[in-house]
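Crash report, auto-generated. Payload:
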Amino acid sequence: MVREMLTGNASAAWGARLADVDYVPSFPITPQTEIIENISSWIRDREMNAKFVTMDSEHSMITAAGTAAATGARVFTATSSQGLLYGMEMLYTISGWRVPLVLVNVARAISSPITLEPDHNDILAARDSGWIQIHVENCQEALDAVLMGYKISEDERVFLPVIVNLDGFYLSFTREPVEIPDQKDVKKFLPPFNRENGYFRASKPVSRGAALLGGTGYSFFKYQMHLSACNAISVYKGVAKEFKAIFGREYDTVERYEMDDAEYVIVMSNSFATKGKAAVHIMREKGHKVGLLKLRLIRPFPADDIINELLNRKGVAIIDQNIAPGSGGILYNEVCGCLYHSKERPNILLSVIGGLGGKDISQAEFEHIIDTIKKYHNKKKVPIKPILLFTEEDMKVTNNIIDIAGI
Amino acid sequence: MIRVRFHGRGGQGIKTASRILGTAAFLEGYYVQDAPLYGAERRGAPITAFDRISKEPVLERGIITNPDIIAIGDETLLNDAAANVFQGIRKGGIFFVNTHYEASHILERYCLPECKVIVHDVTDITINTVGKASVSATLAACICRITGTAGKEALINAIKKELKSIELKDETIDKNIEAAILCYDKMSEVPIETYRFNPVSGPKIIAVKHYLPPKGVAVIYAKGNTKKRKTGNWRLFKPCINYERCVRCGICFVSCPDGCISLDTDNYPVIEYANCKGCLICYEECSAKAIETKREVRTW
Ligand code: SF4
Ligand code: SF4
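Recovered output after restart:
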């Protein structure tokens, strides 16, 4: 094991390298490109033994990834933002083929207006595609999630592809100390993929993506996908246990930070959770009983773990780094949905939208969220509309932009 | 935790400077986070890079708005409002500038708060020793020394590692180390009062109102919307037309990617220097060799 300063992109690439993948179809897009650059230079230098192909688009890239996986190859690919959307059709198609592979999405907010920094409208647009989704907070997690991803994806109880999501800029270009596991330990954790069952061979043709009219068979197989995705929760937990036994790092479906006696909880995901933890730490120093629940596994949605953590709390704020125009925060609705049947659910579930287009969330804003929950705590009527984290100063900046645009 | 923010121009080695500092501190056993911030990357465009160096795990991410040290690699950025180099400057903070001017001159000219201004002509040392103006190793050496985060050995190892990773030749790396050590020895450690969050009154969260078009829609109506962002100060080299050699072929006029060359009534090209960013495509394309280049320094 060595410790090195690695970017999130390099960490994800290391995950693919250690997983000893066979095939990497690729297409460049900021902020993901560094992942495939790393892999292609390793292949050039014979440090990695895989086939690397640059495709003509993300649509072809994801198609190639799925077809290669259907032959039993271990496949890695990566994209971001517009690229993920462009390949969206094939995300649904491939999950229906029931082939295992890992795709890394480097989150970047979606056009238009066009931008480079992250929010999660790209990755959450793929939430119903049948892919397992693991969202990571730091560079180490990025590497580890790629390794775990293969093991989950290749488990026959699941047999669905996996997306690992890491935030652009905040992780993709940011270096942190990362432990690179030894290849022999990774081999123990992730043996070569058993490609005996149902894989395409020249002499043994199979047809994936069959046509099924009339709805009956369609319903059955779609529901099978749902059940397999649900299985991924216990498979995930088993894989996490094995991972901990070998590498010492623990990754549950959710991560609890200062949760034991927390009266107020912030629910959030991805790299901004680091900022949330710092804010919780400072609020704790001031004597506020605040905790943070980080969502790591987004698909399948680990409802039982979330319910367990949120029951009997006084108030909960769900920060969505995404926006569904006309509805609000995407994860807010999912968290509310799973709590509805519990009598001990928190009094207040506050919807907060922040970090759109990578906009920072400041300490003061985190404190504002907790103040707002407290303000409503004893009131009957709680706003169900989301609060946007946007300050007077932000409005000045915006007015200046509008002025330059000549409006 | 020490927070360092570097400012410079694309091609100057600013990202690598932040990585050398990061790696050196990492080798000394610190928790480190470093990151560059670039938009649409272009040589000469302002670039920022960050380092967080701490004895405990770093619970921060993203851009640094409250730096303990601001390190300016290119002094012309001091006059570029858009580069925002003074953001978060404060009493007791350190403001390092790569310049030939005196510290007192900078303090007065920019009316800085009572921060510690440290100056050093890093470019000069680098050009003399290495022969090029990429200040990655030398600038990092200054900040290593000022912050006291890394000794010479860690610094040298970090320079080797980072410059190797961008595929520089051993000979060039050695020269960079030589120049870096010269800088390291010129500086001395300065006590740093690090930033602590202390809200006096937090920012006011507002309820954003609905605006009908055009205000509520991201559409640009203004022609020439670069009016508030002159890119002329990105130049490291200035293209100058020698009208005695110019044959009025107009090639430079059609080649300039930024439309900074127009033709006068006699069809001679005229360069608009307020926005010419010094890419030197016109210089490359002019087959009559009628365009010369001049190094621009000390423009303020
Ligand atoms: S390309 Fe050279 S010769 Fe042609 S118009 Fe421009 S300056 Fe003159
Ligand atoms: S250097 Fe020449 S081509 Fe480049 S922006 Fe200036 S005028 Fe245009």
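Post-recovery validation: Residues 200 and 207 of chain A are 8 Å apart (CA to CA).
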